[in-house]
Amino acid sequence: MNNNQQRTRSIAVNGLLAAVICIVSFMPLRTLGLEITLSMVPVAIGASLFGSTSGAALGGIFGIVSFIQCFGYSPFGAGLLSIDPFATFMVCVPTRILAGFLAGAIASGIRRGFSGSKTSFVSFAVSSITAPILNTLFFMSTLCLFFYNTDYIQGFAGMLGAPNVFMFILLFVGINGLVEIAAGFALALPLSKALSKAFK
Hints:
The structure is a single chain. The chain is mainly alpha-helical. The protein is built from eight helices and two strands. The chain has helices spanning 3-24, 40-50, 52-69, 75-83, 85-113, 119-147, 151-160, 165-198, and strands at residues 29-31, 34-36. Strands 1-2 form a two-stranded antiparallel sheet. Helix 3 (52-69) runs antiparallel to helix 5 (85-113). The model has no long low-confidence stretch (mean pLDDT 85).
């Protein structure tokens, strides 16, 4: 496959993944006010297949969509937006860009640093898991940095019986994080493998 064909393939697949992000972002599962999102699945696929640039771009699309949802669609996001719009943007957008970028960088690093028939599988598997983990880590870190001491988040902490910020993070995203990590592995890994083989 020549460079033009590879570029065309990359644009087509990334465009499709971006569309999937926009659709899936409006189909979250909600628990305790926090949305369980599968939007990191296409981010992980793009990061696995095309590296950090694709991961960052798709993560940015996810982040922008999630920020837009704060204007009335997401009750949790709307609550944050009413407190501090700039901080809400920081929670939604840069966190997803960084998660996608690092997931892609890790996948690319594995492919460059190791050889063998299973290298691609390992890079896909690691990216599929790290993308949702990093998303949750960065999202919750910035959420607590900007909003933990607000009455809004303290209300959730009190409802959960969380005595400190670390327990709040564990209780608030425990189920959500596990579901997103499991979905990342169960969906992103086989889809990355299938797309990789289809475009060889």
